[in-house]
From TrEMBL:
The protein's name: DUF4352 domain-containing protein
Keywords: Signal
InterPro entries (UniProt xref): Immunoprotect_excell_Ig-like
Span of the signal peptide: 1-20
Keyword field contains Zinc: no
Domain of life: Bacteria
Residue span of region Disordered: 22-52
Amino acid sequence: MKRLIILLVAGLLMMLGACSGEETDSEPVNAESDQDKGAEESEASGSESANFIKGTVKPEEFDKVFSAPKEYKGYELSFTGRVFVKPERDTDGTYLQVYADPENSELNTIVGIEDPNLDVSNGDYVQVDGIIQDEIQGQNAFGGTINAPVVQATAVDVVDYVTAVSPAIETFQVDKSQDQHGYVVHLNKIEIAENMTRVYVKVTNNTDDEISFYSFNSKLLLDNKQLEEEHQYDTGLPEVQSDILPGMETEGVITFPSVDPSTESLTFHAEGSSMNYEVEFEPFIFEIEN
């Protein structure tokens, strides 16, 4: 444990480009002097802090950790984030740089775990449980000072975007289908999150011709408001394919702006077409109540 803490502080003084952009514009932090200082401090106090838990970081205190990490040395914390640098490994463990605020690419955190075979890659979303052991100070590309907490992890689990960034606050379980001439639209559920509303849709082609489904034609109707699709990047959410051959199906998520979680009813409006121009389709309209 002691060796791993030293490696966390001394071996992970890499690029801390964290404030607003990617790490490619940043410089190594304060060269050898910070490494030596961090290693010496950790060697002297690492074992004690690793074995003595002073408390747990509460959700409302989380942002304070990054302005004064050393004040929370010995505290347990749990958070979700995104790995933004290729993981470092040696025979003792795996070492990560993680944005603890992945949506805004902020709150740089150094994470180490005694598992050299941890299956994690740059760009993965992770759930981290651990103990704050130290602090690394560095500079971003603009010369600003960054205080990055050093976390000795007890568990690091790869999770998906929804778990890490956009958990559902409210869910409408729908599980209903509409069939027009063998063109089937199934609405599974609608999730309301803080930063988006997700509509889970499956389209099945039981006709003899190719059909088309364009998610950008979909609408979410709420009272007198009409919401359009709002495409989200880097979510890993599956998309509904546009062109579906006979006998095939496609399933995905259409994202809209976030709505009030207390919403009791809304309407999902979708449209479809076929290469058989003799067949006419009405809009697929789902009235949903919670």
